[in-house]
Description:
This protein is 39% helix and 15% strand. With 384 residues, the chain is an alpha+beta fold.
Amino acid sequence: MNERAPEPRSQSHSPAAAPTLDRRALNRALLARQLLLRRERMTALEALERLCGLQTQSPTAPYFALWARLEAFDPAELEGLLLEREAVRLALMRATLHLVSARDALALRPLLRPVQDRGLAGAFGKRLAGVDLDAVAALGREWTAERPQSFAELGTRLADRWPYSEPEALAAAVRARVPLVQTPPRGLWDRSGQALHTPLEAWTGGRQEAACTDETLVVRYLTAFGPASVKDMQVWSGLTKLKDAVRRLGGRLVRFRDEEGIELFDLPEAPRPDGLAPSPPRFLGEFDQMLLAYADRSRILSETHKRRVFTANGLVRPVFLLDGLVAGKWDIRERGGEALLLVEPFAPLSAGDREALGVEGARLLAFAARGKSHEIRFVDGVAD
């Protein structure tokens, strides 16, 4: 987390001088930062930190994210990081579950505390009126440090002390005030378990990391998702007033405009490939972080297709990319010793795209359904 911002470089800050990046250029920059133009040779821990964490509302989502991005990714590597406490699952950006390195968890969570507090106030503020939240958090921290607990159990125990408050709201207060990690086997690839929680500092043995600054967070975000607007940064993180952090970074950032004239910021030496750079087909898992990292998702997902990817109850479906853009969704259905990959494009496929998806789909099945017989089926023209 102690990544330094780029060294200053002479730049023109006149808005009129900022070059324009079209959607294809922004798309290729995103894919390069997200390790999706080609699979990279790096460890799972290196990738977690390069990408500033992975969405993990689905326990297996980070495994599919790393499979799509790394050469020869083995789920056992990520399982090992979780079991060895080098990676953890906890609420961070936007108060949603992320899988991050233990280093990043310790550094990021203090900065993101206001995001957790705002989420708590929005969802449970009225139901917690008059409750001493510091006392609730202190007791919740003590109990979960003694033994990892589910939110249901924790809320029930707390309600014995605060009988006029709802158990769900009391457990949520602890979640917001205390950095709670989900302990394995929750989050493992081949097995899972109930979500049980314990404080981050207890789980990591009292390790210390310097708290991240908002300037460092901007640099980390741009490393993984740039070029981007201040609004994009705020949507991804859940923080407000990041315009001040961008201003303080000053000449250490370069400026662009998108086709709508919105000001974008980036790191001087970050990759910005040509918009015509080849982009191979990729299957992405549920809740892929690229789809949740921007106020304007048009560089990766068209507004027309958004409703087919984001469900009314907050799910983000597995999708596949063609020429760098979301072009359809997929699902694997297993029965006995058989696994079927169902591929549903949002528009008719060319013969070449169908063939390329078939090759990548076979690779996906070999990863996700090892030991089973495989079949790939294309479902064309299906509307939700």
